[in-house]
Specification:
With about 140 residues, the protein is mostly beta strands. The chain has helices spanning about 100-105, 105-115, and strands at about 1-5, 10, 30-35, 45-50, 55-60, 60-65, 75-85, 85-95, 120-130. The protein has one domain (about 1-130). It is globular.
């Protein structure tokens, strides 16, 4: 699920459609729609927070549209750490959209740069990493 923060207010949690959610142990890239807030001004930053695994794991607040600036197109890079068939940790950060994705998602790039175009979409890349326990007492 996701929630947004802008103009000093936070929204309630909203479920994502299944097509926007990660598939266990399968890397993927999705475009998550961001609805236009009714009271968003050009001076406001738009931040989102994501929740995974039945709300067991939350990301920090991530700025996807900074106030007043023309930023690079953002991508949220989410890493799931898996041990013994379950998610044990989630890490997420906003990074500039890679060049290959810029070409592949031209319409979303244009939408991002047009302040009046809504809903906007943020590209989210899901990656899965194995985490192994080390038995310090084992031989």
């Amino acid at each position: 699920s996701r929630r947004a923060q802008f103009h000093g207010e936070r929204t309630a949690w909203h479920d994502l459609l299944a097509t926007h959610c990660p598939t266990f142990d399968r890397d993927g890239v999705v475009a998550v729609p961001l609805p236009r807030p009714t009271n968003l001004s050009d001076d406001d930053a738009y931040k989102i927070r994501l929740s995974f695994d039945s709300d067991r794991h939350h990301t920090d607040w991530m700025t996807v549209i900074p106030e007043k600036k023309e930023p690079p197109v953002p991508m949220i890079d989410v890493a799931f750490y898996v041990d013994d068939g379950r998610v044990v940790a989630v890490a997420a950060q906003v990074v500039p959209l890679p060049r290959a994705y810029l070409r592949e998602h031209r319409a979303l790039v244009a939408e991002h740069h047009d302040r009046g175009a809504w809903p906007k979409h943020v590209i989210v890349r899901y990656r899965w990493k194995k985490r192994f326990r080390v038995d310090v007492n084992g031989g």
